[in-house]
Write a structure and sequence with these properties.
Blueprint (H helix, E strand, L loop, with lengths): L1 E9 L4 H14 L3 E8 L7 E9 L11 E6 L2 H7 L3 E10 L13 E5 L1 H7 L6 H12 L5 H11 L8 H14 L1 E4 L3
Parallel strand pairs: 1-4, 4-5, 5-6
Antiparallel strand pairs: 1-3, 2-3, 6-7
C-alpha cells in the first residue's frame, strides 16, 4: 500500500498540519512516510500545499507530479491540482468558496462541508480535522488510535486538552463526507 496525497488550500486552513498529522500517524503505525510542505511568502491567506506519502514499503522520492488523492480546500487549489490526480484516484474538496465543481469523470470525487460543520461545532480550528476524517472514511489507511497519537505529536502539549474535540471532529468528517462521482 502506498498513498500519495496532495493537500492544498489557503495558509491558515491547517493544510501543512494535516499532512504532518497524517505522516506522524503513519509513523505511529510503523509505516514509511514523507512530508514536503510548500507555501508562498504570504503564509496566512496565501496558498499552501504539502505532499504526504504513506507507504508500507520504502519511499523512493518525495517529489511527485501526480497523486492518488488530492484534498483541495479552495478554488485556486482545485484549478491547480484537479488534473494532477491519477486516473482512478480520489479528489476531495471543501464546498465553501468553490466557484466550480470538479470536471473530471475518470476519478472519484467527494465533497465535504467541513467549514460549515466546524461553525456548528463552535470551533473553526477543527476544520482540518473534519477534512482528515472525511479522507480516512474514504481511504481508511490509518487506524484512529494512531491518528490520535499522531495528533499528540503535532499539537503542542499546551493544546492536548483539545484532543477529544479533534477526535470528535475527525469522526464528524467521517459522517458528513459525500460522494459526488464514483467509478465503482
Amino acid at each position: 500500500m502506498t498513498e500519495e496525497i496532495i493537500i492544498a488550500g489557503f495558509g491558515g486552513q491547517g493544510v501543512l498540519s494535516m499532512g504532518q498529522i497524517l505522516c506522524y500517524s503513519g509513523v505511529m503505525q510503523n509505516l514509511e512516510v514523507s512530508w514536503m510542505p510548500s507555501y508562498g511568502p504570504e503564509m496566512r491567506g496565501g496558498t499552501a500545499n504539502c505532499t504526504a506519502i504513506i507507504s508500507d514499503s520504502e519511499i523512493s522520492s518525495p517529489v511527485l507530479h501526480t497523486f492518488d488523492t488530492a484534498i483541495v480546500l479552495n478554488q485556486p487549489s482545485m484549478d491547480k491540482f484537479e488534473d494532477a490526480v491519477k486516473p482512478g484516484g480520489l479528489l476531495i474538496y471543501e464546498s465553501n468558496g468553490m466557484i466550480r465543481k470538479p470536471r473530471r469523470k475518470d476519478i472519484n470525487i467527494c465533497v465535504i462541508n467541513a467549514y460549515d460543520e466546524s461553525i456548528k461545532m463552535k470551533n473553526t480550528k477543527v476544520f482540518n480535522m473534519i477534512v482528515i476524517g472525511g479522507f480516512l472514511k474514504i481511504k481508511p489507511i490509518l487506524d484512529m488510535e494512531h491518528v490520535i497519537l499522531g495528533l499528540k505529536k503535532v499539537l503542542p502539549e499546551r493544546y492536548h486538552h483539545l484532543i477529544p474535540l479533534n477526535e470528535q471532529a475527525i469522526r464528524k468528517g467521517m459522517d458528513i463526507i459525500q460522494t459526488e462521482h464514483s467509478l465503482n
